[in-house]
Each structure stands twice: as C-alpha cells, then as structure tokens.
Amino acid sequence: MVCKGICTKHKAQRIHGINRYIYGQKMCSVCGIFIYWDGIHCPCCNFVLRTKPRNSKNRIQLQIIQTVKRI
Fold first, then answer.
1. Largest CB tally within 10 Å, which of 21, 38, 53, 65?
2. What does the DSSP assignment read for 10-71?
3. What is the pTM of this model?
4. Where are the domains of the chain?
5. Contact 51, 26 (CB under 8 A)
6. How far is CA 15 from CA 4, 25, 41, 48, 71, in A?
7. Integer Cα distance of 50 and 54 in angstroms
8. What does the pLDDT read at residue 64?
C-alpha cells in the first residue's frame, strides 16, 4: 500500500482549536493526511480511513457532541 498522490485533491484544511473528526474529516495512516471522503477506504492507497481520534481527550469530546446530535 503506497500513496499515489490522488488523496491530495481531497485534502482537508485544518480548523484550529476544534477536533477534525467532528467535521467529518478522516485520516489516512498511510498517506498521513486528513481528507474529506464519504467512503471507508482512502481513494489513493485503498487503506481503511481512521474516523475516531486516538487521543482520549478528543475521543471524549467527539462522543459528547455525537450524543447531543442524537437528542
């Protein structure tokens, strides 16, 4: 699995101070960038995109916002 450069067309801009996953951005571990993409696989390397943060602080923040949206 190698980055072919296709993902740069879908690259997402950083929003300072706010968790990127809240706005629907997903991370490709192989390409190393956040992208806006509806699928579960990276369009470039076909690797599974990460949709949840690894950091516990950001993970809790995302869970709180998702539960508020459900109500």
1. 21
2. GBPPP-TTS-GGGGTEEEETTTTEEEE-SSSB-TTT-PBPB-S-SSHHHHHHHHHHHHHHH-
3. 0.75
4. 6-70
5. yes
6. 26, 10, 23, 23, 25
7. 9
8. 86
* Under 8 Å between Cβ of 31 and 3: yes
The Cα 9–Cα 4 span in angstroms is: 11
How many other C-beta atoms lie within 10 A of the C-beta of residue 10? 17
Residue 50 pLDDT: 92
Q: What is the pLDDT of residues 6-61, one digit of tens each?
A: 878 888 888 877 788 888 899 998 988 999 989 999 988 889 999 988 888 888 88
- Return the residue matching tokens 């968790």: 19
Structure tokens at 27: 């991370």
Dmax (CA) of the chain: 41
